[in-house]
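Hi support team,

I'm opening this ticket because the web form for multi-chain structure prediction keeps timing out on my end. I have pasted the exact lines I submitted so you can reproduce it. The total is 513 residues across two entries, so I didn't expect it to be a heavy job. Is there a limit I'm missing, or should I split the entries? Thanks in advance, R.K.
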Amino acid sequence: MLDDFIVRATLAGLGVAIAAAPLGCFVVWRRMAYFGDATAHAAILGVAISLTLSTSIFAGVLVVSLLMALTISTLSGRGYAMDTLLGVLAHSALAFGLVAVSFLSGIRIDLMAYLFGDILAVTPTDLAIIWGGAVLVLVLIGSRWSALLTSTLNSDLAYASGIDPKREQMVLTVSLAIVVAVAIKVVGVLLIAAMLIIPAATARPFSRTPEVMAVIAAVIGAVSALGGLKAAYHFDTPTGPTIVCLAAILFALSTVVSVFRAPR
Amino acid sequence: MRLVEIRNLAVRLGGHTALRDVSLGIDSGEIITIVGPNGSGKSTLLRAIIGALKPTSGDVIKSDNLRIGYVPQQLHIDPTLPMTVGRFLGLPHRVNAEQIVLALEQAGVPELAARQMSRLSGGQFQRVLLARALMNQPDLLILDEATQGLDQPGSAAFYRQIEDVRLQLGCAVLMVSHDLHVVMSASDRVICLNGHVCCEGEPEHVASAPEYRALFGEGTKGALALYRHHHSHSHDHPHDHNHSHNHDT
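Hello R.K., no limit was hit. The queue was backed up. Here is the completed structure from your submission:
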């Protein structure tokens, strides 16, 4: 079954969508959208380093994304406004990554595949890594769900309940790096943040509790991945961007629907 | 029983000494109110007690298995975060529906469990925060200017609720308040803070202490009069005791 590239692509898309959904909710609730962008953009630098050292792309991206996320966590609250800091880091990481890739003159690499994903080229090994990472993120976030939520509400409330909000922030940082590393093959560096944020934002109007929002976001992410894959095949369009387009259309529909519904 | 013992606590925040030489004890069942001008370290003291701030020097010693219920000064819930009152009360520890109803009753808002947090009025929101603080049967309830944003009848009703809660649960209460009339009527002990403990004791004692007068003026002599203070702290006035407020050392 896994011999079929469409089956592999489908499973890869589902894995990323399901892992990205609960994490994406936290990214939205904690206003970390730019944080996700910066971490994802740093991944291209990870790709360049992996190719130079001939190591696995996954490992290189994971390490560089983690370093980026830790850098942001450390620098935040030290004088610069968060959006300025993230704007600087996100775009410099991308620029340095692109320059670094251009030095790799000996190897012809398909830059587009890393920027926008290449889901149809997912190998069985990639698939194992994607699902391994997805399960890890789900376990990490699921096991700390209540503590993460409490810290997200208010750090003092967390402290008073014996929760260390800095540790919970670290859980999200690590999860984000893992999701970036496994999603690069599916939607690419530039569109990972979209897979985090759009399904979560689409789910918001239909959710009364955080748990419901995470589940609906996962469903919307999965529908986008499956539908986007089909549409890309049908219209012969790039798969990663098509998945994100579908997610964006669902977001627009949800916004329209929520406007016409009585607020609750 | 001694719940919290604070010894020679000092906290520096960003190069500024927010608290120094603070020593005090909190015993079970008592209501203690902290008063003091803006920037006097009231919230810093509470945050050091809940563990959100590490002491620069000194100790905050809590009794074993001390359960703290904390009501923050303000809580902003991001509009992107859907949260019913019932779910909020179950953070971080899941609770059943009966416990939710009970806590909401104790806080005086029994009907709110299914409502979205974002749709509550200011008074309802504060009471839900109180209900959450009561979920784990606290030994010590800590409130940081919990009536900010409530009108005068609203805050009076809120403090009556606190007294009821204390009677029902027997917990100690440590609160920061600007409502001096409430302080004087409802507290067992008042601590007047201005970077250090200026004076402390029974409300009548504190109200007549020169240190307290120096901070809050003579206008509070009739301590039961409604008084909200809007004053900038000045040391120019002559008074006959040595009263140092040099915070930069």
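A quick check on our side: The mean pLDDT of chain B is 83. Let us know if the file doesn't open in your viewer.
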